[in-house]
Design a protein that fits this description.
By secondary structure, the protein is an all-alpha fold. It folds into 2 domains: about 90 residues; about 70 residues, Orthogonal Bundle (Arc Repressor Mutant, subunit A). The protein is about 80% helix and about 0% strand. The radius of gyration is 20 Å and the shape is globular. It starts with a helix and ends with a helix. It comes from Sphingomonas sanxanigenens DSM 19645 = NX02.
Length: about 170
């Protein structure tokens, strides 16, 4: 048997042993069976990407860490989507105008925004998300991140400028 087949067999055993537990664990956190199943699947995909069975001491804990990070990403994505739709409704005059074309446009913009946010320096992205999604003041962000108020303002301004350049490329 080659190495890939052995790894595949091991992944299969890990999946059989841990997938039901992981789905239940995620369902308690998401309160949605479909979301839990999707996140569990994504967790095992991530496991496959960098699988080194010898380096993992506690598989359940390792899977929980991966799943928790994916859940945080999912929650942030949903918060950005919700904030965008609220802003769009306020600016665009209401949800009545959200045609399928506008929704598709919004999804494309959100995908581009998510890609853009992923390219920002971690501290810039964190300051921006704390400001826009959590509604924290610059002072609160500075205290949370352990940086100066002025640095927070620069980070948020840099993120806004980058988002503006995406929204208005010309």
């Amino acid at each position: 048997m080659n190495g890939a087949a052995v790894a595949g067999d091991e992944i299969g055993r890990i999946y059989a042993a841990h997938a039901p537990w992981l789905r239940r664990w995620l369902q308690r956190r998401t309160r949605c069976g479909n979301r839990a199943a999707d996140l569990a699947q994504d967790t095992f995909c991530r496991l496959l990407e960098g699988f080194d069975g010898d380096a993992i001491r506690d598989m359940r804990n390792y899977l929980a860490v991966i799943a928790r990070r994916l859940l945080i990403d999912d929650i942030r994505h949903r918060e950005v989507e919700r904030a965008f739709l609220i802003a769009q409704a306020e600016i665009g005059g209401g949800v009545d105008e959200m045609t399928p074309d506008r929704i598709a446009e919004a999804v494309q913009l959100l995908d581009a925004l998510a890609l853009l946010l992923g390219q920002l320096a971690p501290e810039v992205r964190e300051a921006f998300l704390l400001r826009r999604l959590d509604g924290l003041s610059h002072r609160e962000i500075a205290a949370r991140l352990g940086i100066s108020d002025r640095t927070v303002k620069r980070h948020v301004a840099r993120a806004y400028a980058t988002c503006y350049a995406l929204a208005y490329p010309d």
